[in-house]
From TrEMBL:
Gene3D superfamilies: Tetratricopeptide repeat domain. Keywords: Repeat, TPR repeat. This is Uncharacterized protein. It comes from the Eukaryota. TPR repeats lie at residues 127-160, 169-202. Coiled coil: none annotated.
Length: 324
């Protein structure tokens, strides 16, 4: 949670953001603290912005990032620093998380321009940028463009030694999502299995810290579960609810009690139970006190920009439970 943001004092060229870790696993908070301490001043600015984004503080993050870009235009601390690419990248994430995918795409393309100008030989950075551009295309519904961009991101990763391929898990997960959306279920499962393999391997090659990695893995598990709800795996006996429960466990260790991702995961679990005709489990889950509190929270915050739960999705949930 963001407590406050202090403007630069006289003679200083940086903001101070005071964050309070609320309801986040202590090991994750310690990991964040260590990473912040080990960063350069410019890198720390980007890292803090990234955490603002991951914690859902999109307005605060955007305000902070815009101020950094204003300073860069006036030859500030990051004008010719590689962190400039990180500023544009974080700005793109704030737009993407709120559904402004056109704005996100423009920001990610500015990220690519800055990266190419300042450090073109960094294949990991370039593949991450193309991964984000691909996600923006997904948000806009341009699946062919997204698939081509993700394929390009994979090729860039493969230019790195195997010990330094940092984004393959995320990229393959996104490729799986695109195949799923285009109803190429076999190809989607193949991509998700590749992603799972890289998530299970030594995570030292993945640059994300514990918070970022947990969020990324939970999203992967959710998407894999959704695939299995429409496509029976030929090589695994796992069920959609197995993946949803794993995702739920990760989300609970990171997110606040009212986060929309928790509500959506519970909805996914209930849908999976209904699909398996376990109707008693649906009503049991719905009556759970945690779920009821989440529903109340989502109904109160339904029209916030960072809410992924809509009136239609809650109405569908009530219809499902009523039918059970």
């Amino acid at each position: 949670m963001v407590e406050y943001i202090l403007k630069p004092a006289q003679g200083e060229n940086y903001h101070i953001i005071h964050l309070t870790a609320c309801e986040i696993d202590k090991s994750l908070a310690d990991n964040i603290r260590i990473k912040v301490a080990n960063c350069s001043p410019s890198g720390r600015a980007i890292l803090l912005a990234r955490y603002l984004v991951e914690l859902g503080e999109y307005r605060a993050a955007r305000k902070y990032l815009v101020s950094l870009l204003s300073e860069a235009r006036e030859n500030g601390v990051i004008a010719n620093d590689i962190s400039l690419a990180g500023v544009y990248s974080c700005l793109g994430l704030t737009y993407a998380r709120q559904g402004f995918h056109g704005d996100a795409l423009r920001a990610f393309k500015q990220t690519l321009n800055a990266q190419a100008r300042l450090e073109y030989s960094n294949n990991n950075a370039l593949s991450e940028i193309h991964n984000n551009i691909g996600l923006a295309y997904v948000g806009l519904g341009y699946m062919d463009e997204a698939e081509a961009t993700f394929d390009k991101a994979v090729r860039m990763q493969l230019c790195e030694p195997k010990s330094n391929q940092q984004f393959l898990a995320s990229i393959y997960s996104n490729i799986g999502y695109v195949h799923h959306k285009q109803k190429r279920y076999g190809e989607a499962e193949k991509a998700y299995k590749n992603a799972e393999k890289f998530f299970k391997q030594n995570t030292n090659r993945i640059t994300h810290d514990a918070l970022e990695l947990s969020l990324m893995k939970a999203e992967f598990l959710t998407n894999y579960g959704r695939l299995l709800s429409v496509h029976k795996s030929t090589t695994s006996n796992r069920h959609p609810e197995d993946f949803y429960n794993e995702a739920l466990k990760l989300y609970k260790s990171i997110l606040s009690d009212g986060d929309p991702k928790l509500m959506q995961t519970y909805i996914n679990i209930m849908l999976a139970f209904a699909q398996n005709k376990s109707y008693h489990e649906v009503t049991k889950c719905f009556k759970d006190l945690t779920v009821q509190k989440l529903i109340e929270k989502q109904e109160a915050n339904m029209f916030e920009l960072n809410s992924s739960i809509t009136q239609a999705s809650l109405s569908s949930l009530y219809e499902l439970v009523g039918a059970c």
